[in-house]
Amino acid sequence: MTHTAHTPTTRVAKESTAPRTAPRKTAKSPRPRRGVLRRATPWLFLLVPLALLITFTYVPVANMIYYSFTDWDGVSPEIHVVGTDNYTELFTRPELFRVFLVSFYYLAASVVQIVIALYFATVLSFNLRLRNLFKGILFFPYLINGVAIGFVFLYFFQDGGTLDSVLSWFGAGTDHAWLGDPTSANVSLAGVSVWRFTGLNFVLFLGAIQSIPGELYEAAELDGATRWHQFRYLIVPSIRPVISLSVILAVSGSLSVFEIPYIMTGGATGTTTFVIQTVKLAFQFNKTGLASAAAVVLLLIILLITWIQRRLVPDEKVDLV
Amino acid sequence: MTRKVLASAALIAVTALTATGCTGAAAPKGETATAAADPGSVSGTITVLTHRTDLVQNGTMKKYAAAFNKIYPDVTVKFEGITDYEGEVKIRMNTENYGDVLMIPNTIAKKDYPSFFASLGSSTELSEKYRFTGNTTVDGKVYGLATVGNANGFVYNKAVWKKAGITDWPTSPQEFLTDLKAIKAKTGAVPYYTNFKDQWPLTAGTASIGSVSCDAEANDKLATSTAPWAEGSDLNVIDSLLYDVVHDKLTEKDPTTTNWENSKGLIARGEIATMQLGSWAITQMQDAAETAGTNPDDIGFLPFPAQKDGKFCAITSSDYQQAVSLHSEHKPAARAWIDWFTEKSGFARNEGSIPTAKSGALPDTLKPFEDNGVTLLEQSQAKSAQVNAIDNAAEIGLAKPDYRQKLVDMARGVQSGSLKDYFAELDEKWSEAEKTTGS
């Protein structure tokens, strides 16, 4: 009891007698604790996303790399490590890589896609009536599930389906089987992929364009720049990083096309892509080991191409002013 | 930087090491699910995994369970209908949770049956009572009983064939083609529907292996054959017929956008004349005819157009087989369900299929086969493990659609290559794989 009564005075006395040391002391003793906490804080925040990332990305990838060195069939309890046999088999069978030719259709399509997206992003970045409606319309396809898109377009391309009837309204009705031969099928499928992903590119470009300060346009207009000049000398240079990102996404996307051709043709009639082929190896022929090796190779190819691309077109800092 | 790389490499290495433990779920191999003598002593809740989502949704399976409960009152049966049965169950089988009773997925290699399923008894004993036990026999023990069996051939619309002036079944592939041409010329119907887009209907041809040579062991012989597509062989005749039908433009206009569900209505209304399928499809087409308001009796079934010594042969093969999971906690209940379902449920009769129990009568749908003296042969599966191993190693996929899709594409002229070269290529792949799998 007495002790508690005394404390205020003692504290006051201490503070008054040692004004110099006291603050130092109080600052020093909690510092390590606060420091640990401060250093730990970002990790605490990162804990959940990191746990998710490791569980759902790195562990499966590590598993896949492990499977690629085995002869596992995907279900058998027996699993033998076979070293690099799967990789040897993969690289001694050139026909497994021929399917990459199909990717060129999608690569060509993504060029079209980027141009369309850039065009609309530029047009809609200026003041336009019903701007938001058009933005919504353009972005909408990206929100639809890929499987649903596959089914929708299956009816679209079917004999006497939507495309045929629309064409016949304009007197251009043909008897063409859109998914009937390899060229036509791949072009049709690539077209679907343009329809689906233009919205994503569009939103990326639009965001970048809208971050360009308005004064620059004003200044350009005062200098007598036309819309084309504004696009060429103002918009394109300032969104260059986003364009190069889109190109990387386009290349890796075209190498790993899957959903749309898998749902619509199942890889028949020359529309098999590398990923479809891998899925078939794993789930039809029970060659999970070989398929995992193929997946690892695809990953490496994409990393390599991205690296080359970054070397060729380095990411410069944009500085307009 | 290097520290980071090292750390992440270590992380990957550790996870890879721990991951290896995931697949090899150790289980007590060789356990037997024995049938209980007294139905009252069997109890527990069992889960049945099934591919028949339609029967689960419309309550038919519940009715079977109710009938089952009259004999086994203490067993609760739950059903889990799975749409992508093969894909989903295969992955689930890496865990211990794959139901108490399940249909054996086709992708499971036969040699692995003992590590996934409880044995149902010896094959000498069970094969006396049941058909198709050979499919699931490993080392003299049976691991699954067929739900039903099917005969293989062609579903056809009798009215359309009659309209084209054909009353007799074609006896040779040549005659089959002539008949289809007559149908094309005299009726508005599509003579033959490939169901190319839906893929699996193309695999029906493989089930007919043996119907040309009238040999129940034709499928087993593939295990030692170096040229399964040699002139005059089963596969050669079956696949050549498909090629010729497509090549002579006797099929639908655009095979790439066909639709299975639609095709049922089309054949019921007489807009399609013929489709290659198992006998299980007959009742489905008849139902479609009822829905469409046409005569269900118009739907008939043809044997494969080939005769040996003046007689047709049709191959019967097993549908999915039911097995008891090795990890089931209620094995007697699971076994009781399988026994009851196979013998007493009347499932085969309701489905118009061949009953697994040898005592069961052939369904009405196959009455015309009996009347016309078609020899029904049960396809031997003694060497199916080797055949499947070669098939997978060769990446041909006899029971997969891809190689026939390519055949159809070649017949339509959208992919280059001649049939002869294609058969030679398949033969080469097969014999190559046969050597490496060392059977």
UniProtKB/TrEMBL annotation, chain A:
<dbReference type="InterPro" id="IPR000515">
    <property type="entry name" value="MetI-like"/>
</dbReference>
<feature type="region of interest" description="Disordered">
    <location>
        <begin position="1"/>
        <end position="33"/>
    </location>
</feature>
<feature type="transmembrane region" description="Helical">
    <location>
        <begin position="43"/>
        <end position="67"/>
    </location>
</feature>
<feature type="domain" description="ABC transmembrane type-1">
    <location>
        <begin position="99"/>
        <end position="309"/>
    </location>
</feature>
<keyword id="KW-0812">Transmembrane</keyword>
<keyword id="KW-1133">Transmembrane helix</keyword>
<feature type="compositionally biased region" description="Basic residues">
    <location>
        <begin position="22"/>
        <end position="33"/>
    </location>
</feature>
<feature type="transmembrane region" description="Helical">
    <location>
        <begin position="233"/>
        <end position="254"/>
    </location>
</feature>
<dbReference type="GO" id="GO:0055085">
    <property type="term" value="P:transmembrane transport"/>
</dbReference>
<keyword id="KW-0472">Membrane</keyword>
<keyword id="KW-0813">Transport</keyword>
<dbReference type="Pfam" id="PF00528">
    <property type="entry name" value="BPD_transp_1"/>
</dbReference>
<feature type="transmembrane region" description="Helical">
    <location>
        <begin position="104"/>
        <end position="126"/>
    </location>
</feature>
<dbReference type="InterPro" id="IPR035906">
    <property type="entry name" value="MetI-like_sf"/>
</dbReference>
<feature type="transmembrane region" description="Helical">
    <location>
        <begin position="290"/>
        <end position="308"/>
    </location>
</feature>
<keyword id="KW-1003">Cell membrane</keyword>
<feature type="transmembrane region" description="Helical">
    <location>
        <begin position="194"/>
        <end position="212"/>
    </location>
</feature>
<feature type="compositionally biased region" description="Polar residues">
    <location>
        <begin position="1"/>
        <end position="10"/>
    </location>
</feature>
<protein>
    <submittedName>
        <fullName>Sugar ABC transporter permease</fullName>
    </submittedName>
</protein>
<dbReference type="GO" id="GO:0005886">
    <property type="term" value="C:plasma membrane"/>
</dbReference>
<feature type="transmembrane region" description="Helical">
    <location>
        <begin position="138"/>
        <end position="157"/>
    </location>
</feature>
<comment type="similarity">
    <text>Belongs to the binding-protein-dependent transport system permease family.</text>
</comment>
From TrEMBL, chain B:
<protein>
    <submittedName>
        <fullName>Carbohydrate ABC transporter substrate-binding protein</fullName>
    </submittedName>
</protein>
<keyword id="KW-0732">Signal</keyword>
<feature type="signal peptide">
    <location>
        <begin position="1"/>
        <end position="25"/>
    </location>
</feature>
<keyword id="KW-0472">Membrane</keyword>
<dbReference type="InterPro" id="IPR050490">
    <property type="entry name" value="Bact_solute-bd_prot1"/>
</dbReference>
<keyword id="KW-1003">Cell membrane</keyword>
<keyword id="KW-0564">Palmitate</keyword>
<keyword id="KW-0449">Lipoprotein</keyword>
<dbReference type="Pfam" id="PF01547">
    <property type="entry name" value="SBP_bac_1"/>
</dbReference>
<dbReference type="InterPro" id="IPR006059">
    <property type="entry name" value="SBP"/>
</dbReference>
